[in-house]
Automatic annotation (TrEMBL):
<dbReference type="Pfam" id="PF00756">
    <property type="entry name" value="Esterase"/>
</dbReference>
<dbReference type="InterPro" id="IPR029058">
    <property type="entry name" value="AB_hydrolase_fold"/>
</dbReference>
<keyword id="KW-0378">Hydrolase</keyword>
<keyword id="KW-0732">Signal</keyword>
<feature type="signal peptide">
    <location>
        <begin position="1"/>
        <end position="19"/>
    </location>
</feature>
<comment type="similarity">
    <text>Belongs to the esterase D family.</text>
</comment>
<protein>
    <submittedName>
        <fullName>Alpha/beta hydrolase-fold protein</fullName>
    </submittedName>
</protein>
<dbReference type="InterPro" id="IPR052558">
    <property type="entry name" value="Siderophore_Hydrolase_D"/>
</dbReference>
<dbReference type="InterPro" id="IPR000801">
    <property type="entry name" value="Esterase-like"/>
</dbReference>
<dbReference type="GO" id="GO:0016787">
    <property type="term" value="F:hydrolase activity"/>
</dbReference>
Amino acid sequence: MKFLMLKIITLFFAISASASESVLLAKNDHIESRILKERRFYSVYLPPSYSQNTDKTYPVVYLLDGDSTHLKAVAGLVEALSTERLEQQIQQAIIVAIPNSQNAIRERDFTPTNVDWTFKGKLLEKFENSGNAVNYSAFFEKELIPHINKNYRTSNKRVLIGESFGGLFASYVLLTNHKLFTDYLIIDATYIWDNNYLNRYLKNNQLENKEMAGNVYFTFANNATAFGDIGKTNYQWGLAFADKLRNHPSKKLTVKQRYFENETHGTVAALSWYYGLRKLLQQSVVIEN
């Protein structure tokens, strides 16, 4: 599978290089957030047909941990898989990459509770500031998404991609405000946060009995060797969380998952993007305004 990914990305950049000597990948911009009380930067990648098809709207992929490396990889993959050369396996899409705050650690915005990170009574890491997920979610809902919708031709289809702590945040949004995004790619999330927070939240708020909606694609890595009991427990709690959502009675909630036995927490992202986006952006699913 790694060889397949390498071929796709190599092919894409070879085609791009032969088509033009200078390739502008994305536009860098920022927004002054009143909710977060800081300037937040973001980058916008536009699909190849955007300037020609002026009446067409496009799904938007919101990429957490959206530094230049992640943006290049995801944009290259989305553009390659949407070309005729690769049989247009997915829709073309706008990508909005949001790097982490320049003023705080990434865990500040991705975590739903302000606690020390512990496992079975042992301190894993002590954060100066955490538990800002409620405000970060509001930033997307009230500031960033409306701003993107105002300035670009967006459809109603919105995909949120989160990995590790970003996957924790994506799961939190799914539980607390599932209509904010239509699709979720949750990559090896930090399920051990706050003693199984996600499963506890789902149970304590009786979400099994409430309406939920969205297309969710979970991916899991093999972390048992690298992280021992922590890795095993994170996987077990993640499976339990995905199972509860997959067995949810709501017909508007669909859940798929994939386990990568030969990948670890640090290597699982690329294959997760490939398989997850092939599923969530498949050509048969088109949502227009």
